[in-house]
Amino acid sequence: MHIITLTTDMGTQDHYVAAIKGAILKRITNVHIVDISHEVQSFSTNQAAYFLKNCFEDFPEGTIHIIGVQSEPIIHFESENMSSYPSVLKYKGHYFVGTDNGVFSLIVQENEIEGFWRLDDVLSNKNVFNFPVKNILVPAACQLALGKEIDTFATQQATFKRQISFHPTIEPNVLKGNVIHIDHFGNLITNIDKETFYQAGKDVPFTIFFRKKEYYIDEISTSYTDVPKGEKVAIFNSNNLLEIAINQGAKDRKNGASSLFGISVNDIVRVEYSPRGSKETLESLF
């Protein structure tokens, strides 16, 4: 049984996702299609990469992941740097089929890959450009699933396009990060990972500030229920990213941390560390 996953920004209201699945099943019947998400923010390669990066290793090696976000090819024969070709990336035993618009770099970061290929055999047929996920990416994914050697339908490339990935910044006694995702419950997921958090200030008191000075947390909990219902809480989630939430605060997708604190994606989260002697108060004497 082959596994093909789908990550798109197409939603489920229209017929697009059904058309993609139908195109897969038309070519290969012995396949299990998994929807990672069709609610990616429109054209957000950052969010698509976030979803994939945090779950693809839960699938068996050999799984094929179709990325249907900003998938229309852009061809500039005069300037290769401005082009975005449909491509295939192999990374950690998985295949990622999408358009080379920077999303691959957001998934692999600085890690080593096993190969990268361009699907340039379809570029002469402009008719496939109006629904590239179905007409370009699906056929390539199905050829992989059927065991066809990738070098027979794609051309190996030396590199792929890079997109800037925002990382937390460390200053003396301060760590600055950003909210990179708001989940279904309104929880705030930041780009501050556990290792960086403790690297910036090990075994010292800290305060996590977000939005306003009166919004802060000064301890890391192991689970949401470590605090009473309705209280704010900070944890490191299953992906080891700092998450700010309200225990059972979401009702009908409302009243979560994002709504109650007025925080959006890209807003700053600031961690201030207080090593002994760093504050000009009586505490610095002890």
Written account of the structure:
It is a single chain. This protein has 286 residues and is α+β, with helices and mostly antiparallel strands. The protein folds into two domains: 155 residues, 3-Layer(aba) Sandwich (Rossmann fold), CATH 3.40.50; 117 residues, Beta Barrel (Elongation Factor Tu (Ef-tu), domain 3). Helix content is 19%, strand content 29%. It has six helices and 15 strands. Strands 8, 9, 10, 11, 12, 13, 14 and 15 form an eight-stranded antiparallel beta sheet that branches. The radius of gyration is 22 Å and the shape is elongated. The C terminus is likely disordered.
Mean pLDDT over the residues: 89
Distance between the termini: 65 Å
Number of domains: 2
Query: Largest sheet, described in full?
Result: 8 strands, antiparallel
User: Overall 3D geometry?
Assistant: elongated
* Count of helix runs: 6
**Could you say what the CATH architecture of the largest domain is?**
3-Layer(aba) Sandwich
**Strand content of the residues, in percent?**
25-35%
CATH class of the largest domain: Alpha Beta
String of helices and strands: EHEHEEEHEHEEEEHEEEEHE
Tally of DSSP β-strands: 15
| Unreliable spans | 281-286
Oligomer: single chain
| CATH homologous superfamily heading of the largest domain | S-adenosyl-l-methionine hydroxide adenosyltransferase, N-terminal
